[in-house]
Amino acid sequence: MIDLESKKIIALMSGTSCDSIDAGLCVVNPDMSCELIQGINYKYPEHIQSKLFQLFNGEASIKDLCQMNFAVGKCFADAANILISEHGKPDFISSHGQTIYHFPFNEKLDGISLKSTLQIGESSVIARETKCLTISNFRESDIANGGEGAPLVCFADEKWFKPYKKNFCIQNIGGISNVTVVSRENATFGFDTGPGNMMIDYCMRKFFSQPFDKDGEVANKGTISESWLECLLQDEYYFKNPPKTTGREYFSSDYVENALRFAPKDYNDIIATLTALTAKSIAQAYERFVYPDIDINEVVVGGGGAYNPTLMKYLRHYLPKHVDLKTHEAYGISNNFKEVMAFALLGYCNYYNIPNNLPECTGANSRVVLGKVTNC
Ligand SMILES: Nc1ncnc2c1ncn2[C@@H]1O[C@H](COP(=O)(O)OP(=O)(O)O)[C@@H](O)[C@H]1O
Ligand SMILES: [Mg+2]
């Protein structure tokens, strides 16, 4: 067996929110700890971002998809090159890509499974433009091994939080919300709890022409419509047993438009209720799928949702009083760059051929080494 060494890795990630390409220069160590040296949020050029939203909404063609794979690769490389110009070349790049479609279902065509996922941002372009070896496409191998290809961050959560010997819900609130349950005695497991910021962002764009509810100010001015909230919480996704993952394909613009038919009139109330939906669906997911097995001490929030004080206030309200609510910052991990750091670790494992999926989280049949290597 070869000796592991610390590696300098630039990790690249853009989540379902499509708000920015998060790029982080990280050092991953043989004990699997990860330090963030510098992180940047690199905005997509305006027309590229609109084209991505057209892809999400099914308004773009196969030609657009083909072109965007290369264009997004160039944007990812540009983000990496900003860090490279300041810090020099890393040992390699680890890129998650931009999820365009995620289909974790067991549907079949001619008896052949249609389970699939698509992250774009062509690794050949990243490798060429940065002159760095690039590891990418982490989710496919998990699906090929019977899993859902998500959530993958659970692997990092286990490495980073297990040593604290507490019973944790590590809750990411990005476009979608996902939890990893890391406990003293049980095997780590995780699943998507439902929407994170995605429905809020959609309505902020629609009603306020803003990309998101900055600091939860709009939600804070509104009043939660309890009747609409209860109606939204009846969606079958919330009742499905884990492992389960979801995405933009389900909580889509059509989904929100349909939900809005029953919404209160006041726009502030709509944002307040959707913010409460994210918080309450998380709390209910714990009641249904976590508390029956594990006595949770602490919830640790990360992702963009950690920066929304109204969302955090609602989450506090819906969680049992004895459960502590913190953010990743309390553990020295950036809320903003947590997922980037996780993909640096996944890349590190690929580099050394260490299995980096958790079958309890993704539903895969076996532990496998996720990621593909593109030489520069
Ligand atoms: N200061 C803030 N106030 C309220 N919401 C915020 C703030 N900062 C980020 N967000 C929310 O977080 C989202 C981005 O979260 P992120 O973790 O990057 O998600 P993803 O992984 O899906 O890209 C934004 O679209 C926005 O809704
Ligand atoms: Mg993001």
What does this entry look like structurally?
By secondary structure, this protein is an alpha/beta fold. It folds into two domains: 7-152 and 339-374, Nucleotidyltransferase, domain 5 (2-Layer Sandwich); 154-322, ATPase, nucleotide binding domain (Nucleotidyltransferase, domain 5, 2-Layer Sandwich), CATH 3.30.420.40. It has 13 helices and 14 strands. The strands form three sheets. Strands 1, 2, 3, 4, 7, 8 and 14 form a seven-stranded mixed sheet that branches. A hairpin with a 6-residue loop joins β10 and β11 (189-195). The longest helix has 26 residues, at 62-87. It starts with 6 loop residues before the first strand and ends with a strand. It binds adenosine-5'-diphosphate and magnesium ion. Magnesium ion binds next to loops.
Task: State the main characteristics.
single chain; 376 residues; alpha/beta; Nucleotidyltransferase, domain 5; 7-stranded mixed sheet; 5-stranded mixed sheet; 13 helices; 38% helix; globular; binds adenosine-5'-diphosphate; binds magnesium ion
- The dominant shape is globular
The value of Rg in angstroms is: 20 Å
Order of helices and strands: EEEHHEEEEHEHHEEEHHHHHEHEHHE
- Please, how many helices? 13
The named CATH superfamily of the largest domain = ATPase, nucleotide binding domain
What is the structural class? alpha/beta
How many domains would you count in the coordinates? 2
The appropriate CATH architecture of the largest domain is: 2-Layer Sandwich
Estimate what percentage of residues fall within beta strands: 15-25%
| Average pLDDT | 97
